[in-house]
Fold each of these.
Amino acid sequence: MLKLTKSSRLDNVHYEVRGAVTAEAERLTRQGVSILKLNIGNPAVFGLGAPAHIRADMTENLSDAEAYSDSKGLLRPRQAIAEYCARKGIPGVTADDVYTGNGVSELILMSMQALLERGDEILVPAPDYPLWTAAVTLSGGTAVHYVCDEQSDWNPDVADIKKKITPRTKGIVLINPNNPTGALYPKQLLLEIVEVARQHQLVIFADEIYDRLVMDGLEHTSVAALAPDLFCVTMNGLSKSHRICGFRCGWMVLSGDKSRAQDYIDGLTLLSSMRLCANVPSQLVIENALRPDGGKDPALLPGGRLYEQRNFIHAALNDIPGVSAVKPKAAMYIFPKIDASRFNISSDEKFVLDFLHAKHILVVHGTGFNWPEPDHFRIVYLPEVSELKRATDALADFLSCYRQ
């Protein structure tokens, strides 16, 4: 019989956030084992539900969501997104520059498919959210990873970015605030990266889904606001900030100099039309969700859940011999370093699998985020402090006698 094999386009495509270790966790769950899943930023699972007015917008307007919308999305939500961009300092954005999506994930893939020819290169951070590398690869391009420096609060190394540029480089991806590290890039650093993009005529792809999840009195700067003369593609959405991951509510905004990008924009519009439209019920919550309310999410302030959980996990990890972690400034993740030589770790995937089997706690290995060494892992700090304490106590006990 003819054997059906996967497409060669999937060679070297990985998504370890839901990869082999997660599959093993699901197998154990089906056997009745209770697993603490710290692998995915899924707030509702940990009791961080959507604001009541967001749920009300969804349910009360369902009767208006039975038909397809325009392929870019409903007009009023797109106008609200354009107004949000204006408040962020991104100039010249209109509703026509906005594409709604079934989450940002769909739009990331679309943005690469519309651009890349085989052999084209996109600069992607290491560590990265692995969908970016996968999307580049699936679209026929080559992801070239530039280093984010752990010794510099996980900020991108501009010198390394410059070294990685070739005549085939089409664009650069910035994930800010960063997943998996929780880094928040300062304005001066963004200006330096913008200047590199300007000199080499690179498209800037800005993944800013966590821009409203910032702590310590800091503010997020949108890179597109610093590059009005460059073509920028900015991704954002409500999945994390409004805790509605399951609603699949994301958007993509085009800004800056579009004069040389019209053919690419036509490609984006074609791909957008081919999937008909983003799901309409989620579009109906955007307008109210983006109204300026003048206040910070209490969960991000001292005494709030995310703030206190962030502080706890940072301190607890650094108290474990052989583990260290940079304190995140934003998002909902921490990316600790483990002393690979101390624990004789040559495979970080085996490390997290061994930890899963021993303690029934699921985390993600660092190489799953295209980090080159087997010496990091990512933890989601969404659970209550009591659960995080259970996890870090278990990790300390596990490492006290672990040698790979």
Amino acid sequence: MAKELLNYLVDAAAFVVFVLLISTGFVLEEALPRGSGGKAVLWGLGRHDWGEVHFVLALILILLIAVHLLLHWRWIICVTKGHDCKNRCWRTVLASVILAAVAALAAAPFFSPVVLTGERGDHYGQRQKVELYGSEDIRGSSSLAEAAQLAGIPEGDLIRELNLPPGVSSQERLGRLRREYNFSMTDVREAVRRYRAREE
């Protein structure tokens, strides 16, 4: 009975944490999108703070799933091996291959080179800052006019560089335009860099 109660509590906790993980993910994507910087807060927390909450919830969920798997380990082994002796070897091999593939997929980001936007070089030892002419201050909460002023380029040229319609208002926020016209803040900074490179 004690094991059944423990199973119930672990599964219930995992479900609650999973729902909260989804909720904080939506907060990061919709309420505090990339580029909102430190100017936007929700319940007194900025985007970075919500990112930390999201990360901690993910760690808790991983721990709860690990406990869940440990509590059901004998059942998992029995189901994997099966009752049919002829297919037992193939089932074990297949389960091992799937497990190895999942582990490789999870580990892949840690063994891949990190590329920093706005910097030259794909490796840590080769990074050199590329001057972005003040565009590092441009945020999703900036209007087109503010972004152009910060970057020191005409509004019309910024609109053209971002492939926006000519009639778009210069008072529109980049965050809303980014969602509507499918560009990123990195694209904005790259547009500034391209324009400045041509001017020089």
Amino acid sequence: MIKRLYLNVFFRVLIDYCILGLAFGLTRDLLTLKGAPFADPANKWVLSFSFLSWWYIGRAFHLFEDYRSRPFALEGIRILKTILVLGCCLTFLFFYVLKSYPFPRTFTLTFTTLMFTLIIVEKFMVKQAMLYFPGRDAKGKKILIVGASQVGLDFYTAILQNRNSRFQVAGFIDENIPPYPGAAYLGKLSQLPEVLDRTEIDDVFVALPQWQQKEIKEVIGVSEKNAKQVRIIPHVHRSYSRKSQMSLLEGVPVLTLSPTPLDDPAKQRLKRTLDLFFTIILAITVLSWLCPLIALAIWLTSKGPILFKQERWGLGNRRIVCYKFRTMYHGCYQTDAQGKYAQARKTDKRITPVGAFLRKTSLDELPQFFNVILGDMSVVGPRPHPTPLNLESGDKVPNYMRRHTVKPGITGWAQVNHARGETRIPTKMQDRVTLDLWYIENWNFWLDIQIMFQTFINLVKGEEEAA
């Protein structure tokens, strides 16, 4: 199985290299028409550098994985990322090493455009071919499910509904006949040796509940004695996600229900570096003159402090002090007649004229870059909510508190997707939480850059949802 996996990766990389060589040749021919001396030995260095870069960048973005059971759009995004990073590497090569290379910009643009087009076509055709000719592993692996619990039935249903599944269910074993149409009942647990002896089985999937530890051990022993691969289905199917991971911690297998990219300390450091770099650049170029002007406008138009400080919740439910420019009249009410936190509305009479402009343009959030420097917040992340709203939403909105598994942000995926402003209607808060959780589960460096860019565009245009 492992040997077959390595062969699969080898052929994927080999085909990519053929495409890369074709794109390089076409680019060379196109630029030769401009009179570029492409007999130059530097081409060998460029081609070798491209081959080496493609391998390492592709591995970093998991480009060589099997995508048969996943949407092609996911593979397309990773192809785009790989091409963009390859283009940056070539730019670095031409700028610092091969300074005399003819038409470096034209070459990089043409080569990466051809690569993206050809690789997309190639990957799509390979994917379709693998689906049409699934091979011996795709439909030939017959499995036995031990345990007709809800977990086992859910797994069986998932296999039936996935036309690209690599498994065929030979049947169930359980003390009772599984109440499910089409499920072949092969016998009781005590009959497992006879079932394995008379039935062609490749893998045994154990779906017994955890309290049946004795039976689970017996199933594992009998299956391994018959040279069958054993797989355990955890009884937490209502909680785990598609990204749940099993790992060994201190030699003990541990299932992580909702792993996130930012669980990795190296990625946390990368995000922190981006936060500090962006904040320092913004402070030098914009905040140094814009913040004093805003502070002066607030001081001249309404009485009270310039900054508004409010308790909010950060990483791990830790309380933080969030800083904003004051946009409401000093001393105005914070709760409504029912004693609930009074969220700001578009026509809220508590908001000052200057405050309305600051909220419209999100400039009232600028002091939170101080929170970023302190390490309480990140530039990009789920927006922190006031403590009363946090407590209220935590009780009503499913998975709301999972937002606190990362640092809160000044802007976020929900905000650039127009999920901002008042959330009195529960569905609006749920939409925001859904977007925040997607960001947490799919974080990467480029996504943060994209959100920063989209935030700038929205700031220039103005936000209708802002209150």
